[in-house]
Amino acid sequence: MTAAPSTTSPCPTVPAPAGGPGGTGSRGSLGPVGLVLAGGVSVQFGGALAVTLMPRAGAPGVVALRLLAAAIVLLVFCRPRLRGHSRTDWGTVIVFGVAMGAMNGLFYEAVARIPLGAAVTLEVLGPLTLSVLASRRAINVLWACLALAGVFLLGGGGFGNLDSTGVAFALGAGAMWAAYIVFSARTGRRFPQADGLALAMAVAALLFLPIGIADAGSRLLDPTTVALGSAVALLSSVLPYTLELLALRRLPASTFAVLMSLEPAIAATAGFLVLGQSLSATEAAAIALVIAASIGAVRTQMGRNKTPQAPVSP
After folding, report:
1. For residue range 198-208, what is the model confidence (pLDDT) as tens digits?
2. DSSP assignment, residue 249?
3. Per-residue buried b or exposed e for 261-285, using 16+ beta carbons within 10 Å of the residue's own CB
4. Is 198 exposed, middle or buried (0-12, 13-18, 19+ CB in 10 A)?
5. Phi, psi of 107, deg, nearest 5
6. Upper half-sphere CA count for residue 194 (Cβ side, 13 Å)
7. Upper half-sphere CA count for residue 125 (Cβ side, 13 Å)
8. Spatial distance between the Cα atoms of 140 and 254, rounded to a whole number of angstroms
9. Number of domains into which the chain is organized
10. How far out from the chain centre does Cα 21 lie?
């Protein structure tokens, strides 16, 4: 059962597509794409900030702070109602929360062992695989393959010199990212505004907080660590997850997944500005391939939006 939209919830609402209920105007397709891109910028700059925080709290501690702070903000802001939801609704939001927590935990364990750019490059293979599996048009496979070529080029053409455990964590994070895409879309359809996101974030925080406490202990109570962790939560969880959840109500999962191929390019930019990591000519060429694939996916989606479609769930 899909919950009816609430008229009193302070959570953000989804704007109606341009051109009326049919969504035939071109602006209707640009709206969700802009939300996805804004979410990508936010999450990657938050990830760069998280790297600077790891010496203070460790990877599990950073994840625990990020999820806890994000859950508190969303629960206070959204005030999601707990009644009136079916067992299927609750099952969906719980799986969404588990996927979210696992995605964060695995990714930060990866960047504790391998460079940020390589970790994001490996992680994005999950959404790219989803884009191929979920696609119903051959052209989307072409864009996914082009983006995949850029991803491997950004990784230097291979990953043989990287820590094998870090690579495994990054690939696991990619699988959880694909699950996040699917269950974010399903949660967005079953809960009004961002209520489902707030509940899922609480599930993720409850699951990961004991792990963070066991690893970091009293270091999590340091005021500077708490402040930086809260900033990471805002940039890497609250803003991007809300924007992406809203976008997935109007954007097919296959197109969303291909747009996620922009993440290595955004991460490289964030790494340069925040961490002082420069770009090589090879990395610049990889970014160009990824951007070309994403533009192709967006143009394909704009053409398909002449007839409104629900998000595709594999």
Report:
1. 899 999 999 98
2. T
3. bbbbbbbbbbbeebeebebeeebee
4. buried
5. -65, -45
6. 28
7. 20
8. 8
9. 1
10. 28
String of DSSP letters for 135-183 = --SHHHHHHHHHHHHHHHHHTTT--TTS-HHHHHHHHHHHHHHHHHHHH
Record the tokens describing residue 268, joined without a space: 């490289």
Two structure tokens written together for 140: 């989307």
Asked if the structure places residue 9 within a domain, the reply is no
Per the domain annotation, does 113 fall within a domain? Answer: yes
Q: Please tell me the distance from the alpha carbon of residue 232 to that of residue 69, in angstroms, as a whole number.
A: 9
Tokens of 226: 């708490």
Token representation of residue 191 = 């809960």
The answer to the question of residue 1 being in a domain is no
Question: Using CA atoms, how far apart are residues 144 and 126, in angstroms rounded to an integer?
Answer: 11
Q: How far apart are CA 198 and CA 78, in angstroms?
A: 7
Query: Could you give the CA distance from residue 85 to residue 190 in angstroms, rounded to a whole number?
Result: 9
Question: Most distant CA pair in the chain: distance in Å?
Answer: 56
pLDDT in tens, 102-138: 999 999 999 888 877 778 878 877 877 777 776 667 7
**Which residue type does 164 have?**
S
The residue count of the chain comes to: 314
- In which domain, by residue range, is 232 found? 28-304
Q: State percent of the chain over pLDDT 90.
A: 12
**Residue 279 located in a structural domain:** yes
- Dihedral angle of Cα 159, 160, 165, 170, to the nearest 10 degrees: 10
CB 138 within 8 Å of CB 145 = no
Task: Provide the 8-state DSSP code for 46.
Answer: H
DSSP string, 211-245: HHHHHHGGGGG-HHHHHHHHHHHIIIIIHHHHHHH
Distance, in Å, from the CA atom of 10 to the CA atom of 170, rounded to the nearest integer, reads 35
